Amino acid sequence: KLPKPSRLIPLSERFPKARPEAVDLLQKMLRFNPHKRLTAAECLSHPYLSEYHDPDDEPTADTTFEWEFENSELTRDQIRNYMQVEANKVAALLQAQKAAAPSS
């Protein structure tokens, strides 16, 4: 079981030098619910990227890309299990990197 964080650190605190528009874009891109998350088109039209956005000079896809796994209704326990599996993979990778690092 994953421990609950004692306090969620707002992205504006985690990245204090970032522009507010950058933090806003990041928050909207990282929403857990895929239906509330920004689409690629919405990201491109976000104020933070406005100086780089040129609708006349951007490729478009012929079809919409679908992440099938986001359409499945997972239970809280299934989500928790998937997250634990991924966390274990990261922990094993970090442990292997630490073991391979030269001692000082």
Largest sheet: none
CA radius of gyration is 19 Å
Write down how many β-strands occur, each being a DSSP E stretch of 2 or more residues.
0
Give the terminus-to-terminus CA distance: 35 Å
Proportion in helices: 40-55%
What coarse outline follows from CA principal-axis ratios?
extended
Low-confidence runs (pLDDT<50, min 5 residues)?
none
- How many helical elements? 4
The SSE string, one letter per element, is: HHHH
Structural class, judged by helices and strands?
mainly alpha
Strand coverage percent: under 5%
Q: What integer is the average pLDDT?
A: 86
Number of domains: 2
Protein name: Mitogen-activated protein kinase
Question: How does this model look, in words?
Answer:
The protein is an all-alpha fold and 104 residues long. It folds into two domains: 1-72, no CATH class; 75-104. It contains four helices and no strands. It has helices at residues 11-14, 20-29, 40-44, 76-100. The mean pLDDT is 86. InterPro entries: Kinase-like_dom_sf.
Mind sketching the topology for me?
Blueprint: H1 11-14, H2 20-29, H3 40-44, H4 76-100
Q: Quick summary of this structure?
A:
The protein is mainly alpha-helical.
Features:
Mitogen-activated protein kinase; 104 residues; Kinase-like_dom_sf
